[in-house]
Amino acid sequence: MKHAMSLLLTLACAHAFAACDKSEIRLVNSMREIAQPYHANVDKGARMFARWAGLERNYVLQLNHGDSAKQVSLMRGLLATNARCTVFNVEPNADPVIKPMVDTAQRAGAWIVTHWAHGEGLHPFDGYGQWIAHVAVDSLEAGRAISVALADAMGGEGGIVALQGRLDTDPARKRYAGLQQVLKDRPGLRLLDQQAANWDRTAAFPVMQTWLAKYGGRIKGVWAANDDMALGALEALRAAGLAGRIPVVGVDGIPEAIAAIVKGEMRATVSSDAYYQGSIGLAMGVCVLTGQTPAPAAWPRDRREFYLKLQLITPHNAAQFRGDPPPSAYIPEWDCAHLWKRSTGPAF
């Protein structure tokens, strides 16, 4: 079977051709914002790839500021020109936005790579020739990993408060499900309260202040569905003189969170590597458009929809993740023969 698949790819590569001159290729990153460090690093990763590929002047950043309709309309507006040589790397504002964006790419002849999660029953390999790939993150595993780290830091017992993300997104729901699994396995832990803070530290800060006033010393751990909310909670703990005394965990591996782990104020974060997520979809698109890979329709299913390798960052390894990574850390993975190097297998 492996030999047959290898032969199929070899034959497909033999018929691959450059659809666009490299100078015509337009690279687009579509996301919510860049105020949050995670999103800022997605943009940094994209710009890093664009410079390396000699396409820095052809890079476009589209920000929807939390408006899914705007995310789609910005895409449609840009595709009025040069659609066939345009590659979209999409971090969806909410899961439902992926379908209209994929449909827009299909109609216009543009190319799209999506991230995180999408609607149930929707897959790139089900007749979507322009949908290059979906790079998924196992958010259940991410939520479980930080929950185990928090439980261990608490000695397996005590009260937890939990800050949830946007509840209309798969990552928020599944990360919280990971926490619920660990709570079930660790009977000494108790969930005191939970509230959505929509991925935002400014929203998390007053929520944490309210919890401190309400529960006081009963709070033994803080769980947050992303690092930005974890840092908002940490600011409230600092104001109360409790930073470093109550363990805090988050997700995303942003620089401030890693610095807080090194300092002893946070216990753990999980990184999907925002720099990689910002660049890999653009690299895939360039490889397709320059004929260095076959058309996505010829790719095996597990190369069109796969889970991305995650990294748990704790006090034991945090120092090695400080600072912006150099382009040399990603060049081997931008190579058209190694685009799937971080895949851990089929998603969903």
UniProtKB/TrEMBL annotation:
InterPro entries in the cross-refs: Peripla_BP_I (IPR028082), SBP_2_dom (IPR025997)
Keyword Signal part of the UniProt annotation: yes
PROSITE patterns in alphabetical order: PROKAR_LIPOPROTEIN
Secretion signal, residue range per the UniProt entry: 1-18
Lineage start: Bacteria, Pseudomonadati, Pseudomonadota, Betaproteobacteria, Burkholderiales
Organism: Pseudoduganella namucuonensis
Entry similarity comment: Belongs to the bacterial solute-binding protein 2 family.
A GO cellular component annotation in the UniProt record: cell envelope
CDD domains reported for this sequence: PBP1_ABC_sugar_binding-like
Superkingdom in the source lineage: Bacteria
Domain Periplasmic binding protein: 34-292
Pfam families registered for this protein in UniProt: Peripla_BP_4
One GO MF term: carbohydrate binding
UniProt keyword Signal, yes or no: yes
Annotated localization: Cell envelope
Protein name: Ribose transport system substrate-binding protein
UniProt-listed PANTHER family: D-ALLOSE-BINDING PERIPLASMIC PROTEIN-RELATED
Keywords assigned: Signal
Gene3D superfamilies xrefs: 3.40.50.2300
